[in-house]
């Protein structure tokens, strides 16, 4: 936040001298946003700085008096440990697979919802139901559905045996977790894409049709390029969300059979094992890796996010 | 004609997608516990495996569970109310006023929306224990507020930008005082946006899991998602699936009712906050 001073002279074109009115407006504006800023920073920036500080100690809550300064050794331990890299890799896998599938299914749903005239309200209402359901509940629903003891999935799928244990090995357990994640968040993706679709001009699509463009050509050459901002926002938001995956893993496998994500590892170190020093180092690493993911996606799409969402 | 059939098929697929797991968990909640422990695969309760309302009764009689529902309602409502008030002030300033630091506010909000929640629970756990907020309502309300603010600010400022603010002056020209002009012209126009932001905020708070399990230890403040995940029946090695399903249905009903009533506003809010070009 900038200091509470008048705007720099000559900033607004044609107004070399800042009027009292503009100065009062700045003061009012800053006062109105101050509570929001203070609250947001109180729970994010301050704890993050504290995490940075704690991460340099060998500090466990079980032995609060033995707090030794260890410098960067927690980071070294984490970065040289296979566990850290395994959880990072699995987290990236969760993110890439779920977002890719959601993008395809979400787009198909958005196309249907965009074209449908009858029963519009019913469809839109039902698509919000997965969005409204608590992630923990959706995790339970899918865990029980995949369970060989009382689920229905084994019975419905022809290629797996009735006693196949989905949570017995990594591959199938990860699949089950992804199904729950995809089910829950595809509606959100499709709503964002639907809003993007609504902004593509019908005239342009009609014109392409008259010019003899096939359905695929219209999709690839007219519709998709015009929705780039919407697709980017949807992918970015979902990807960062997927990278933080935690609830489904907690409920469905509790991190067993190597399904643990980096969020889960951080949680386990801090809250379950009271290793605040190591946990803080992992927190910082998690934060940094989210930044890297965000940076890569924004670079990939080459879009100024603030502009795409705000004043374009 | 071919198109129409495709659309109908598409609609049916969407409906199945959305409703199947919901139907499944409802069906599960009506299975008896003995049928489940004996292994009762299949979508619907088998003959004689139904339990009627017994699971719901058992969940409702469970003190821990009732307490969790009460905590969730209270904490979510208070966090929503406070967050929307703070966000309205900020969004009004962003939509209406020119001031330095406006871009910074939006950037901070965006950054926080992307923040990995888990990386904060460690330091918050430590801090809350030191200042006595651990396992209390305010200990959850404060994090919920700051994490719902970005969404509320973005939704509201997108919404406020559409309001024709000149109408306020027009009313003043017609002889209304500035308070009257604000109350009679702007408030009715802004109310739907504020309401939408409130629903989305409430969703977030009700849905939260990470803070719920990390910053609570007893029934004092533990909200319903956390409580469900710690719910173990008589046999700690076998989760009581049918009881859990009944609990899940109870915890989901309020949210689904809200969705059904306000679906139009929710769609508008979700999309206006996220995609506006």
UniProtKB/TrEMBL annotation, chain A:
Pfam families: BPD_transp_1 (PF00528). InterPro entries: MetI-like, MetI-like_sf. Residues 88-297 form the ABC transmembrane type-1 domain. The chain crosses the membrane at residues 32-53, 92-113, 125-146, 166-183, 281-301. CDD domains: TM_PBP2. Keywords: Cell membrane, Membrane, Transmembrane, Transmembrane helix, Transport. It is a multi-pass membrane protein. It is found in: Cell membrane. PROSITE patterns: ABC_TM1 (PS50928). Belongs to the binding-protein-dependent transport system permease family. This is Sugar ABC transporter permease.
From TrEMBL, chain B:
It is found in: Cell membrane. It is a multi-pass membrane protein. Keywords: Cell membrane, Membrane, Transmembrane, Transmembrane helix, Transport. It comes from the Bacteria. Pfam families: BPD_transp_1. The keyword Transmembrane applies. InterPro entries: BP-dep_ABC_trans_perm, MetI-like, MetI-like_sf. The keyword Membrane applies. The chain crosses the membrane at residues 7-26, 69-92, 104-125, 137-160, 185-206, 241-262. Residues 69-262 form the ABC transmembrane type-1 domain. Its main location: membrane. PANTHER family: INNER MEMBRANE ABC TRANSPORTER PERMEASE PROTEIN YCJP, MALTOSE TRANSPORT SYSTEM PERMEASE-RELATED. Belongs to the binding-protein-dependent transport system permease family. This is Carbohydrate ABC transporter permease. It comes from Nocardioides humi.
